[in-house]
Amino acid sequence: MHRHDRPVTILERDPSRDARPPGGTLDLHEGMGQLALRKAGLLADFLPLSRPEGQAMRILDVDGTVLRDWPADPDEQANPEIDRGQLRDLLLGSMDVRWGQGVTEVVPGTGDGVLVRFADGRQETFDLVVGADGAWSRVRPALSPVTPHYTGITYVETSLDDVDHRHPELARLIGDGSVAVYGPDRALVAQRNSGGHVKVYAQFRAPLDWQADLDPADADAVRSSLLALFDGWTAPVLELLSHGTAFVRRPLHVLPVSHTWAHVPGVTLLGDAAHLMPPLGVGANLAMLEGAELAEAVAAAGDLDEAVRAFEEQMWARAGRWAKMTAAWLERLVSPDPAAALAVFDDVHPGPSVTTAPGGADRAG
Ligand SMILES: Cc1cc2nc3c(=O)[nH]c(=O)nc-3n(C[C@H](O)[C@H](O)[C@H](O)COP(=O)(O)OP(=O)(O)OC[C@H]3O[C@@H](n4cnc5c(N)ncnc54)[C@H](O)[C@@H]3O)c2cc1C
């Protein structure tokens, strides 16, 4: 919209750009996130920040045996990684954002545009409101009564800093990209971000109120309960958890596969607000591509409403396919049979696995 000289108001609930940690690394697919950056004229700025080596992937069993090892080709640009903070800064550039503007309600059909109410009691009208406000969208209720439901799978996230110097043995285990270890109903996944920062995700089946009485700020207690959950796994793998000093609980919620709504003039959704799905590598890519496509459709439109309708049809069809696929993957990745997880990677990974890890080690540690 910015490139088409269309005025846009960006409303963000966070009080500032750096109000909270931006989260883990993202891989941007050539035909999705990277295409959106190309349309925004930002691909050339993205490439030097991106980490093609981050596409490397290694899979272990709970004894530490390397089952698959896919090194990354540094020239391969299909899915390079980028830190979320870097991507956010790239996208925001010098654009004006109205920070600290929490939306509480959106009311279409006022006759005078779409009414937006804010947490501070003010209100304002707009021609088109695009709800890109994530899983717990406050725009969605204007279009759909549906809310996200719990998948039965929880992630607990922790981080390791300066891994190459402080934990060289873990650095070797993780390699240039990610390492994933699959056991019955549990997984441990560690992913490199830039600058030796690593995000570790403990993934397991649990009730929504798992350890609800545990103080999330009590890192020692959370670490102990996680180590108990992964009891019996080889020590070098458990080291991924033992060095975490802060833990964030993320129970995975999703919207129903193929969530749609009856079109309402002047309001639409994109990204997680429209189609929250398991976090398996496409959510941010879809949100970015949809943003680019909606902007192009609106910029070219004779009739704004027709353009938004056509955008929604296209988004629903594509997101429905991904939601179905990622729901099936999640069931197999955190499943009673770890072989099912391995099969997901064999299905989707384009290249051959090498038989031993670099350095000749075929066991963790
Ligand atoms: C552990 C994990 C790993 C993931 N890995 C990947 C990956 O590798 N690749 C990938 O493509 N996707 C990945 N995802 C998914 C991806 O993070 C999401 O799909 C993506 O962030 C959705 O973008 P969004 O803009 O729709 O929503 P969000 O990123 O949630 O952004 C919503 C924005 O709206 C703001 N907001 C919320 N409510 C209001 C309000 N009421 N008023 C004003 N502002 C509001 C929020 O502050 C936020 O800035 C992962 C997710 C997780 C949890």
Automatic annotation (TrEMBL):
<keyword id="KW-0285">Flavoprotein</keyword>
<feature type="compositionally biased region" description="Basic and acidic residues">
    <location>
        <begin position="11"/>
        <end position="20"/>
    </location>
</feature>
<feature type="domain" description="FAD-binding">
    <location>
        <begin position="110"/>
        <end position="300"/>
    </location>
</feature>
<feature type="region of interest" description="Disordered">
    <location>
        <begin position="1"/>
        <end position="24"/>
    </location>
</feature>
<keyword id="KW-0560">Oxidoreductase</keyword>
<dbReference type="Pfam" id="PF01494">
    <property type="entry name" value="FAD_binding_3"/>
</dbReference>
<keyword id="KW-0274">FAD</keyword>
<protein>
    <submittedName>
        <fullName>NAD(P)/FAD-dependent oxidoreductase</fullName>
    </submittedName>
</protein>
<keyword id="KW-0503">Monooxygenase</keyword>
<dbReference type="InterPro" id="IPR036188">
    <property type="entry name" value="FAD/NAD-bd_sf"/>
</dbReference>
<dbReference type="InterPro" id="IPR002938">
    <property type="entry name" value="FAD-bd"/>
</dbReference>
